[in-house]
Design goal:
104 residues, mainly alpha, 3 helices, 45% helix, elongated
Amino acid sequence: MVKEKKESPKPPQAGWRPDLAEQGERPDPMGKRYHSGWGIAKIVNWVVMALSGIVFFVIIWLPDLAMWATISVSAVFIATVLMLFILQSPKDVNPYLDENGTAV
């Protein structure tokens, strides 16, 4: 049997952590836009989307409800999904995107 020499891992450099090394390059993830009306609009949008999704699954099982109610709830859900694209944060504020806009 051949014995291989096992190397012990090198001790880490003092004070270095990967997340702290790049912190100076990244913008603040909780920027001013998050705490402004944009952040509130995002939260309201997600709440309305969740409620319209729940209401949709409830009303499709009610036989006596008019068709306009189902269409209205579906339209609200579609509108909130489209609003997500309008309310999205710019890529320079998102710390999980690289310089090309790809998720890391």
